[in-house]
Amino acid sequence: MNRAxxxxxxxxxxxxxxxxxxxxxxxxxxxxxxxxxxxxAEIDAGARKGNKFSAEEICLLEKGREIGAHLLSxxxxxxxxLEELVPDFDRxxxxxxxxxxxxxxxxAVYFLKERSQWKLPIIPPFxxxxxxDIVSLNRLGRWLGEKxxxxxxxxxxxxAGKELLYEGGQVVGVRTDDKGLDRQGKPxxxxxxxxxxxxxxxxxAEGPRGSLTKDLVGKHYLDQDSNPQTYAVGVKELWxxxxxxIEPGTVIHTAGWPLKLSHYGGGWxxxxxxxxxxxxxxAGLDYEDPTFDPHEVFQLxxxxxxxxxxxxxxxxxxxxxxxxxxxxxxxxxxLATDGAxxxxxxxxxxxxxxxxxxxxxxxxxxxxxxxxxxxxxxxxFSEARLSSYAHRVDASWVKEELWExxxxxxxxxxxxxPGTFHVDL
Length: 425
Hints:
The protein is of the alpha+beta class. It is built from 13 helices and 20 strands. The protein folds into two domains: 3-73 and 142-227 and 329-410, FAD/NAD(P)-binding domain (3-Layer(bba) Sandwich); 101-135 and 230-326, D-Amino Acid Oxidase, Chain A, domain 2 (2-Layer Sandwich).
């Protein structure tokens, strides 16, 4: 038994543990804090009986050094969930005004060949973005994090969830990662053991293919009645280009080169104020070519005559990549088990047809928060109680939206040309 196992770990007891401070985790924390505040106020006013709860008993774990550290800027936001969570987020005089970059203005969709492009005469309805906003996801995350912290939620940054804690098959919390280990995983002189964060209910919001989610899904067979999840990888860069190069609010989507017609995916360019540009390429991971490299292909994408003139004279500020759950509605696992819920990308809440998941992640977190609050009131954290989360999802606009796109990725399985004839535009 090594030193890491021998050393006793400190334990923290909370009511609710949320793992991951992306849009889903932050929305879960903020909505739950709102429900607790309303509940306590009604007790104080004599309009409700029962026990009070404290937002301090909500613990949010984030592996980054600060909230938003793992959120790479540049996304188009459907504001539907944010409108419900913070109704005055877009009022100019509101103290709750969100840091939106700019509304979507000019839109275009292109089909690319290696040295030419064809602009679609009409934009498919699912790619139309008027009424949406281009946002810096990093700034939006930090803004939500500030609201969560102001609401009294306990936030721990720099702590990753290492493994789930179980008692009798029920999830009872998470052990955080050990600090001060060498490359072989052996303790160094500055070794610090991870904490045991014990909770009545744990909400996993760690993004696609998270390690804790994989463990939970596998241990409880949460995906046994679901289609296998399929994934894409999105490669993204944030650029600063000379002023006036492209109008802020411009949204461009592309299909075709440098991807083969048989390969699911496409590119995008979102123009923000002050010459900031989000540029990226999404490629399905179900490709057949063993030599395909999404990072290399993305570099080719930037040389296209449509893209290169926009970038010339600019400089890249940030670079990143992430996986995207593309399976759709039929790939969602069971969303609740004893002591735990799944929200956001780790559950698969993404609309691959619209290329959007932020609003779905946030709404799933809000619905999970309502479920958790009811569980706190009844002091019941069994699967039977927490399964009302799935019923909430079924009754919400989340299912309505995902149901319309339920077969989109499957329709594109044989390539963009036959897929276009199978997709309802």
